[in-house]
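seq:
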Amino acid sequence: MRILYFVIFLFLILPNHSMANEASNWLKKEIDIILDAYKNKTMSNETRFLMIEDTINYNFAGTGIAKFVAGDSWKTADKDIKKEYIKLFKRHLALNIASMMQGYSDQKYSLINSKYDSKNKITLIDMEIYNDTGSLIVTWRVKKSKERYYVIDLLVADISIVVTKRSEFNSMLKNVNYSLKELNIILEKQNETSYQKLIN
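struct:
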């Protein structure tokens, strides 16, 4: 009977473990692409960012995050405004993550833990970043869709980047009477300022 229980336990636990390992391997590869770009001193800042932006846009669920962040303003906007907002938000997200990763580019990291949440169908991957004074834990929330992985959130010191962005954007939307069209104007200016800082 004990053997039967053990077999059942393995049957339940192994697929989740395998899924978590697969997601971790995928994530490490994508993180290393970004960090290697920062280490390549022959690359211009602009070329480096554009390459990193492509990597982030391909691997983050940017459209889904953008809709969540916009809240009810998404529902009332017309198609062209939504399309422009998605494009601007994806660049905003890429600029934020590229800036954050730049700060960690000279530090060592390791993926220390990964677990598959079968209820929500996501993998949580803990990354420990080491520096001279200690370390920082960053948790990546990864979801598989259509046979490939996407990052759906990033937690730095247990603070969700998606929840933080929703709060930030809600404040901006409140100032423009929840108009996505007006938000696009603000976002475009912010993106340009952030872009110039990153490439110069």
